């Protein structure tokens, strides 16, 4: 199959640039910012110059990564009809918005991975790429690191006949304190936030330990997300 050319993104970037210019030219926003004491002038200068440059640089990373991933795929595996749907349009906007708001390349690469993966199996009812993007764009890099390490620690299911409470003790989140070099108190706070996203859940009902310690384990949602990101077609 013919390979996608990398780096040939000038038309796309130029189009995006025009969108940003139009947004920046909205007089209501710009004039309102100008009246902010002390901060108004530097914020306006940022929006009219550096913000454009940073946003374009981050979008370029997004589209370069997309070109690289697509070039490695068998074209017949891509659902081209899906690329014309509102669902894909919403995903693209969400990915672009998320990319514009982070300086971390790894996060941008994950957004691209979800976009391309959604086009491979868009009709799988068990997968929800829009939900995955929504959750991941809200996570900090340190939270992504913790959730990745927790998954690696707990991805193996309990053995047949093994109680989930016994399995959890041997796969405790506290083991991450050493591997991540994060203090246990801070790690617990991170996991509590991840629990609110649905990527982590807690076992309850312990009688021999304090429930306040937290018994965090990976959720089915996280397992689905990891499965979605690890599609064989994208891992070749």
Automatic annotation (TrEMBL):
Matches recorded under InterPro entries: Abi_alpha (IPR025506)
Matches recorded under Pfam families: Abi_alpha
Domain of life according to the entry: Bacteria
The protein's name: DUF4393 domain-containing protein
Source organism of the structure: Dethiosulfatarculus sandiegensis
